[in-house]
C-alpha cells in the first residue's frame, strides 16, 4: 500500500542525500519525493510517497526519525489531506489533432503553456488520479516528454499533524 | 575571550570534552591540527602505523572505558583508511569521533590532490557527519559531534575539516549546550508497557534473558544480575554482551546463536518468555526467524526505537535506556522460582556441554583459550580478532566483568584485535591485555606491533596458528564439500621473528605441555609479547547452526 509521509527537516545541505540514501541502502522504494522550504526558511518540508506493507512503513518511519536533521515526521495516509502534483506534458499536436487536445485540456482544467510547430506543452495540477487521467487521455496523441513534480500534501484543518496523531 | 585558529579550537574542544588520548596519523591536510598538538601535555597522541590501526585503537579504547574514542586522519587516503573502522564502530554502537582533514575549501569538488568526499563516503556508516564550512561553526560542531556520538544509541561521528578552516581564526567559545531540534532519544519512555512487561515476567514459567551490548553501553550489568537473580531466569549473553553477566554465574548460559552453546539455544527455543535487553536480534543470534523462540512472548528493551520489531516482532516493546528500564522492572517484578525450568536447562548443560578433545600430541586452540582464562582468572581484557579464534575466545574465556571482552561483532572485522588491544592497554596500563588472534587476522594489521612497542605496551598476543583462514575453511568443509579454495595459508611469516623485528618478544609453542609455561612467561614479560601456538589445523568451532537454520538444530551440539 502507498503511504504518504510528511517530513519536516532542517534546511541544511546534505539532508536530501541522507534521506534518499537511507531509502536506497535499506531497500525501500521511493514512489515520489518532493521538497521545498516552509514558512520558516530554516526548515524544509519533504513529502515522500513510499510503497510497502505495514512492517516496511514502520521501519521507514523509525529509520527516518533517527536522522539528526529530521524534526518531525508523520504518516498522513489515514488523515484528511489535500495533495497536489504538477505535471508538464509535451504532446504531439499537428493541426488535425490540436482541437481535440485543447478540448481535453479544457475538460481537465489544465493549461496550454507553449505551442510548437507540431507539439504543445500542457501544464496540469491535481491529485495523482487526475494527473494519471490526463496522461492517459493524451497518450494516444504521442507523449514526447512528461515531467512530474511528485506529490506534495498538507493535512486539512488548522493544526499541524505531529507524529503522534 | 581567546582568538584561536580552527586547529586550536579542535584541540581546546577535545580538552573541554575531557579527551585524554587520541589516535591518529598525520598528513598534509592536518598539518595545522598536528601543529596545535605539538607540545600539548593534556592530550596524548598515539601514532599508529596505519589509519585503520588508529581507528580500531580508538574503538577499543572506547569499548574498554565507555568514553568516546577519538581519531585523527588526513584527507583522501587517510580518511578512506578509516572507513572500515568507522563501519565497525557503527555496527557495534561504539562512541567515536573521527576528525579528518580535508583539502582547502576552494579545492573541494575539483578532484584535488588527496581529496575524498569522506562525509559522503561515510554517510551510511555514521550516526552523523559534518563538513566544516566556517571556522565560526567549529566549536559548536565539536560540541554536537561528541553529544551525538555518546548519547542515545552511541555511534561514530565524522568531522571533516578543510585545511583553510583549520588555519582560519575566530573567537573560541565552547557552547555549554547543544540545540539539535531533530535529534531525540528516549531515555525512559516506558510507563504504559511496563505493567504489561511486569505481568509477563510474573507469569512466565520458562523465561530466558537475552542480554547484549546495550547492557554494557548503559552500565546496567549490576541491574541485570539483580534482575536475573530476582526472577531466577537463565541469562544468555551475546558476543557484544559478553561480560555483562558473569560467565561463571550459575544462571549464565553463555552465548546464543550460530556458535552459541547448545543449552542457550535450547533454552531460547523452549522458552515462553524472551526478555531481550539491549540486543538487536542479529541474524547470527536468531537464525531462522520463524523458528526463534516460537512459543515465547518477546519483551524487547532498546534505546533505539528502530530496533524494535526490525527482525523479530516484539510483543512488549520498551524503548529507553536499558539501565533505567531494568531498574523500573526490578522494582515491580515479583521474586520467582523456576526450579523445573532451571533443572531442564541444567540437564541440557550436562548433556550438551561445550567440549573438545585435548590429546598429548597437538595443541587444541580451545585449550589455549582455557589456559589464558585460567591464568588470568577471567579478569583480563581480551581483544579478539575475527573468525574461529574469536568464537573459541567467546566460548571458552569465562569473562567476569563488563567492558573486558573487546570483539568486532556486527561487522566482523579481521585485523581489529591488535589495534583494539592497543587502545585497551592505553586505557588500562596496569591491566593484563590479551589479543587472541588467528594467523590470518593478525596479518591484517600486524604493522601495529610497532605501535605497541613504541609506546611500551605490555600486550600479550596469542596467535592460534592453524595455517588456515580457519572459519572459512570450516564452512568449505561443511558446506562446500571440502573444497578448500584459497584458505590455506602457507609461507609464513615466522611470527616469532616478526615480533622480534618490531622489538617485541616472541616464542613459538608446538606441544600442549608447553602452553602453560609459555603463558606464564608472557605474563611475566614487561613488554609486548607474541606467542605463536601451532594448533590443530582442522579443528572446528562447534556447536554450529548453519546460516539461516533454526538455532536448536546444531551441528556438533553435543559431546562429539
From TrEMBL, chain A:
Which reaction is catalysed here?
2 pyruvate + H(+) = (2S)-2-acetolactate + CO2
Give an example GO cellular component term for this record.
cytosol
Q: Which GO terms describe its biological process?
A: isoleucine biosynthetic process; L-valine biosynthetic process
Entry EC no(s): 2.2.1.6
Instruction: Give start and end of each ACT domain.
Output: 4-78
Gene Ontology MF, one = acetolactate synthase activity
Protein name per its UniProtKB record: Acetolactate synthase small subunit
What is the scientific name of the source organism? Metallumcola ferriviriculae
Amino acid at each position: 500500500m502507498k503511504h504518504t509521509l510528511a517530513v519536516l527537516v532542517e534546511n541544511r545541505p546534505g539532508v536530501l542525500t541522507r534521506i534518499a540514501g537511507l531509502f536506497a541502502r535499506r531497500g525501500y522504494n521511493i514512489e515520489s519525493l518532493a521538497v521545498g522550504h516552509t514558512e520558516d526558511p530554516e526548515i524544509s518540508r519533504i513529502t515522500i510517497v513510499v510503497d510497502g506493507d505495514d512492517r516496511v512503513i514502520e521501519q521507514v518511519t523509525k529509520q527516518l526519525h533517527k536522522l539528526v536533521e529530521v524534526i518531525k515526521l508523520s504518516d498522513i495516509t489515514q488523515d484528511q489531506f489535500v495533495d497536489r502534483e504538477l505535471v508538464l506534458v509535451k504532446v504531439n499536436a499537428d493541426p488535425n489533432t490540436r482541437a481535440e487536445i485543447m478540448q481535453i485540456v479544457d475538460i481537465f482544467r489544465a493549461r496550454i503553456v507553449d505551442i510548437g510547430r507540431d507539439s504543445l506543452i500542457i501544464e496540469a495540477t491535481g491529485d495523482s488520479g487526475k494527473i494519471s487521467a490526463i496522461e492517459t487521455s493524451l497518450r494516444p496523441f504521442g507523449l514526447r516528454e512528461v515531467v512530474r513534480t511528485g506529490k506534495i500534501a498538507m493535512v486539512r484543518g488548522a493544526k499541524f499533524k505531529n507524529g503522534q496523531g | 575571550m581567546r582568538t584561536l585558529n580552527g586547529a586550536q579550537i579542535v584541540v581546546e574542544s577535545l580538552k573541554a570534552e575531557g579527551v585524554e588520548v587520541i589516535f591518529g596519523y598525520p598528513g598534509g591536510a592536518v598539518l595545522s591540527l598536528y601543529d596545535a598538538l605539538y607540545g600539548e601535555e593534556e592530550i596524548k597522541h598515539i601514532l599508529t602505523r596505519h589509519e585503520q590501526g588508529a581507528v580500531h585503537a580508538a574503538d577499543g579504547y572506547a569499548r574498554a572505558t565507555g568514553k568516546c574514542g577519538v581519531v585523527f586522519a588526513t584527507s583522501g587516503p587517510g580518511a578512506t583508511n578509516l572507513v572500515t573502522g568507522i563501519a565497525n564502530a557503527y555496527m557495534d554502537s561504539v562512541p567515536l569521533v573521527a576528525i579528518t582533514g580535508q583539502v582547502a575549501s576552494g579545492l573541494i569538488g575539483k578532484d584535488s590532490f588527496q581529496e575524498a568526499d569522506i562525509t559522503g563516503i561515510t554517510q551510511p556508516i555514521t550516526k552523523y557527519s559534518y563538513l566544516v564550512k566556517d571556522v565560526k561553526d567549529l566549536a559548536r560542531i565539536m560540541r554536537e559531534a561528541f553529544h551525538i556520538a555518546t548519547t542515545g544509541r552511541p555511534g561514530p561521528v565524522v568531522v571533516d575539516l578543510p585545511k583553510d578552516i583549520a588555519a582560519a581564526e575566530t573567537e573560541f567559545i565552547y557552547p555549554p549546550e547543544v540545540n539539535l531540534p531533530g535529534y531525540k532519544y528516549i531515555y525512559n519512555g516506558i510507563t504504559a508497557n511496563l505493567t504489561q512487561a511486569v505481568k509477563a515476567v510474573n507469569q512466565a514459567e520458562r523465561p530466558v534473558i537475552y542480554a547484549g551490548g546495550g547492557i554494557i553501553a548503559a552500565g546496567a550489568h549490576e541491574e541485570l544480575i539483580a534482575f536475573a537473580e530476582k526472577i531466577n531466569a537463565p541469562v544468555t549473553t551475546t558476543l557484544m554482551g559478553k561480560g555483562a553477566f558473569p560467565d561463571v554465574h550459575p544462571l549464565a548460559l553463555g552465548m546464543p546463536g550460530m556458535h552459541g552453546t547448545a543449552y542457550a539455544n535450547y533454552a531460547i527455543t523452549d522458552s515462553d518468555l524472551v526478555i531481550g535487553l539491549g540486543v538487536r536480534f542479529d541474524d547470527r543470534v536468531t537464525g531462522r526467524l520463524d523458528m526463534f523462540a516460537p512459543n515465547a512472548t518477546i519483551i524487547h528493551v532498546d534505546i533505539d526505537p528502530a530496533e524494535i520489531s526490525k527482525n523479530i516482532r516484539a510483543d512488549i516493546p520498551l524503548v529507553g535506556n536499558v539501565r533505567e528500564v531494568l531498574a523500573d522492572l526490578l522494582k515491580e517484578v515479583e521474586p520467582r522460582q523456576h526450579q523445573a525450568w532451571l533443572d531442564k536447562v541444567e540437564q541440557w548443560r550436562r548433556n550438551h556441554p561445550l567440549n573438545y578433545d585435548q590429546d598429548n600430541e597437538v595443541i587444541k586452540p580451545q585449550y589455549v583459550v582455557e589456559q589464558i582464562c585460567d591464568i588470568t582468572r577471567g579478569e583480563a581484557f581480551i581483544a579478539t580478532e575475527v573468525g574461529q579464534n574469536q568464537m573459541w575466545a567467546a566460548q571458552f574465556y569465562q569473562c567476569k566483568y563488563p567492558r573486558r571482552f573487546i570483539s568486532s561483532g556486527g561487522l566482523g572485522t579481521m585485523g581489529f584485535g591488535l589495534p583494539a588491544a592497543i587502545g585497551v592497554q592505553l586505557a588500562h596500563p596496569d591491566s593484563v591485555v590479551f589479543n587472541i588472534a588467528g594467523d590470518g587476522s593478525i596479518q591484517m594489521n600486524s604493522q601495529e606491533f610497532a605501535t605497541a612497542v613504541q609506546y611500551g605496551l605490555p600486550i600479550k598476543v596469542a596467535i592460534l596458528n592453524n595455517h588456515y583462514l580457519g572459519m572459512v575453511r570450516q564452512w568449505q568443509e561443511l558446506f562446500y564439500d571440502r573444497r578448500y579454495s584459497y584458505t590455506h595459508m602457507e609461507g609464513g611469516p615466522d611470527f616469532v621473528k616478526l615480533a622480534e623485528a618490531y622489538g617485541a618478544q616472541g616464542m613459538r609453542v608446538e606441544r600442549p605441555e608447553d602452553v602453560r609455561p609459555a603463558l606464564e612467561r608472557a605474563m611475566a614479560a614487561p613488554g609486548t609479547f607474541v606467542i605463536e601456538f601451532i594448533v590443530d589445523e582442522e579443528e572446528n568451532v562447534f556447536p554450529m547452526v548453519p546460516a539461516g537454520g533454526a538455532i536448536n538444530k546444531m551441528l556438533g551440539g553435543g559431546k562429539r
